[in-house]
Design brief:
This protein is of the alpha+beta class. The chain folds into 3 domains: 143 residues, no CATH class; 87 residues, Helix Hairpins, CATH 1.10.287; 145 residues, Heat Shock Protein 90. It has 10 helices and 12 strands. The strands form 3 sheets. It has a 5-stranded mixed beta sheet. A 5-stranded mixed beta sheet has the order 7-9-10-12-11. The protein is rod-shaped and about 160 Å long. GO terms for molecular function: ATP binding; phosphorelay sensor kinase activity. It catalyses: ATP + protein L-histidine = ADP + protein N-phospho-L-histidine.
Length: 450
């Protein structure tokens, strides 16, 4: 539309100027015919000359003298005067638009320069309606030609876009739909063929994603099958080990010194195997249930966790609880207790491995955004490999023979609350974990005022 305006408006203004200039030239020719005969022409010939020029009268200014050369009766007063000698583009466009917008029959005066320097100026009087009809006819021709060019251009653009964009995009959509129905079938992985650089880049990215996703799905299926087998083995092995643990407990009271020395190691080994089976079964569940949020008093919970692990302020290692008596948080009590039990158990095992005493510190508090719970110990710190894969199952074990499932499950439970489990520090002076639980209630719950 902008192109149409930029073409139509100057063109119609130019046409008006050419039309009036042509009338001036014809009027000048008619006046020269009169001057050549020294004014000796009949009224009929004068009327014919004016009709041929399409004007009512002609005025020439020659040698500073203004002379009415040809004249006839004007049916009505002159409505407007236009001087083509001093009109700029804006004035010409404005006057042309005014003519198109004015359907009234008017008489106008036009002033211009004579051709071939045959005087100082020439002035004519004529009807505006023929000019308007010619301008409308010319404008319609321009619009028709522009519309034809626009239609041809639009058709070319349509077919170009269809061939270069629409058809390749439909092909991509078909591949995506077919791949969605059978993502394991490698035959539905797209092969890039587009000639447009951006679209070909999209096809290549889709091909890479489909290839990786197909491989991931195959690996996931194998892992699922392997996980199911491991879960069954762990379940059966746990039952066998539990029976073995009962027999080990019975022979612990044996009077044989050799048996008495071997039994504690046997019981410890069986206990670790049972714990591994139970952790594997717990981790193999499809998902943990969503947190059931409730108000929890922190100090009693931390004391229960320490007592459940056989720890107190006077035990070895010692467990110190530093929490304000009235501190309350909003969380799932069972899940938070499992997380704390895992962290405290790991801390105790780290201290026990050193063969010397130590201290486990449990504290909790709050700030403007979060509740926080700190679990620290004076153990030897985590090895570099354990810190690198700390919260990854079967890779982040902190002790020899461990599976790393405890920290992986703990991190998952904390994330379920919208919080995070962080390793604050781990060096020769000990290890410190921090649990942060947000006070915000999420999208479906109001923010907690505490």
């Amino acid at each position: 539309m902008l192109a149409e305006v930029l073409i139509f408006v100057p063109s119609i203004a130019r046409f008006r100027v050419d039309y009036l200039q042509l009338r001036l030239e014809k009027a000048q020719i008619a006046s020269l015919a009169l001057l050549a005969t020294d004014g000796m022409i009949t009224p009929e010939l004068e009327t014919e000359l004016l009709a041929n020029a399409g004007v009512f009268n002609v005025v020439l200014r020659r040698d500073e003298i203004r002379q009415l050369v040809l004249s006839s009766e004007i049916p009505q007063p002159v409505a407007a005067t236009y001087d083509l000698r001093m009109s700029g583009p804006y004035v010409l466009i404005r006057d042309a638009m005014a003519v198109l917008a004015d359907p009234q029959e008017r008489i106008i005066r036009v002033i211009g320069n004579p051709v071939q320097e045959a005087g100082l100026l020439i002035e004519i009087t004529l009807k505006q309606s023929p000019l308007r009809r010619e301008m409308l006819d010319y404008g319609l021709r321009i619009l028709f030609l522009s519309a034809l060019i626009s239609i041809i251009t639009a058709a070319m653009l349509f077919f170009a876009v269809r061939r270069l964009l629409v058809v390749p995009i439909r092909r991509v959509v078909r591949h995506m739909q077919a791949y969605a129905e059978a993502p394991e079938d490698a035959r539905f992985v797209i092969t890039p063929t587009a000639r447009v650089v951006e679209l070909r880049g999209a096809e290549e990215a889709l091909q890479l994603m489909q290839t990786e996703l197909t491989s991931a799905l195959r690996q996931k299926e194998r892992l699922a099958q392997l996980g199911g087998a491991v879960a069954k083995i762990s379940h059966d092995l746990r039952n066998i080990l539990t029976t073995a643990q009962l027999f080990a407990d019975r022979i612990e009271t044996s009077a044989d010194p050799a048996v008495a020395r071997a039994v504690p190691k046997l019981v410890a080994s069986i206990s670790r195997a049972v714990n591994l089976c139970e952790s594997t079964l717990a981790f193999g569940k499809a998902e943990e249930h969503p947190p059931r949020l409730a108000r929890i008093a922190m100090r009693p919970m931390l004391e229960d966790v320490a007592e459940g692990e056989g720890l107190s302020a006077t035990s070895d290692p010692a467990c110190l609880v530093d929490v304000a008596p009235g501190l309350m948080i909003r969380a799932d009590a069972e899940q938070v207790q499992r997380v704390l039990a895992n962290l405290v158990r790991n801390a105790r095992q780290a201290i026990d491995a050193t063969g010397r005493g130590g201290t486990i510190e449990l504290s909790a508090g709050e700030d403007e955004r979060d509740w926080w719970i700190r679990v620290g110990d004076t153990g030897p710190g985590l090895p570099p490999k354990a810190r690198e894969h700390l919260f990854m199952a079967f890779q982040g074990s902190v002790r020899k023979g461990g599976s790393g499932l405890g920290l992986a499950i703990s991190a998952e439970l904390v994330r379920g609350h919208g919080g995070r489990l962080e390793l604050v520090r781990s060096d020769e002076d000990g290890t410190e974990f921090m649990i942060r639980l947000p006070k915000g209630g999420g999208l479906d719950l109001p923010a907690d005022p505490a």
